[in-house]
Write a structure and sequence with these properties.
alpha+beta, Aminopeptidase, seven-stranded mixed β-sheet, 7 strands, binds coenzyme A
């Protein structure tokens, strides 16, 4: 926990917060602004506009936790998702998307940190993250949070054992999230 907390020294403009039901169109527009490479990295393949619109709606209707990064003007430019994996006990699957013009500014790390707080609140003990083996950004991000990555069939499965944070660690995460 100490290493994780000490890595949280970035500062960005804008806000990180859980998206509200009324934010569906904002979330959809964010996904639609992802370019071809980001779509491939996020969805492990091509993702059409129609697919993304349907996907966003499904997230908002199936209980997925979606945390957003809102820029100063109030638009969503980054998101982190926490999906239930009901077939795996106490396990969630997470995914991230930061628009190309906003990448490499520490937003992904802040989204990750906030998502971990939500995962603790929901009592998950394990998180999975999937991408492709050449996604250096996701691999570096995952490493910061001590994700163990394994490779098979061209996909990268990262696994994070959440454990139980101590009170001090949680407080520090909340203050810096
Ligand atoms: C992965 C992603 C969410 C990272 O978001 P971000 O806001 O750019 O990340 P941060 O700025 O917080 O950087 C996190 C780490 O990744 C590294 N990084 C970011 N972009 C990188 C790139 N293109 N190549 C290599 N490393 C990169 C940063 O240097 C940082 O590493 P460090 O902590 O060792 O310095 C973003 O690149 C993205 O949305 N990509 C498209 C979708 C995707 O790949 N999603 C993940 C699969 S679900």
């Amino acid at each position: 926990m100490d290493n994780i907390v000490s890595a949280f020294t970035d500062s960005i403009e804008g806000r990180i917060r859980q998206l509200r039901p009324s934010d569906l169109s904002q979330f959809t527009e964010h996904l639609l602004r992802l370019d071809r490479d980001s779509r491939r990295d996020r969805f492990n393949g091509t993702a059409s506009d129609a697919f993304l619109s349907t996907y966003a709606e499904r997230c908002f209707h199936d209980g997925t936790t979606v945390v957003g990064y809102l820029g100063r003007e109030g638009h969503v430019h980054g998101a982190a998702e926490l999906h239930e994996r009901p077939e795996l006990a106490d396990t969630g699957e997470i995914a991230f998307s930061v628009e190309p013009g906003h990448q490499k500014r520490g937003i992904g790390r802040r989204l990750f940190r906030r998502l971990i707080l939500h995962a603790h609140a929901l009592d998950y003990t394990r998180l999975l993250v999937t991408t492709h083996p050449n996604n250096e950004a996701m691999k570096r991000l995952a490493r910061t949070f001590r994700a163990r990555l394994s490779f098979s069939d061209g996909s990268t499965m990262g696994e994070i054992e959440l454990g139980r944070p101590d009170l001090e660690g949680l407080t520090e995460m909340q203050l810096s999230a």
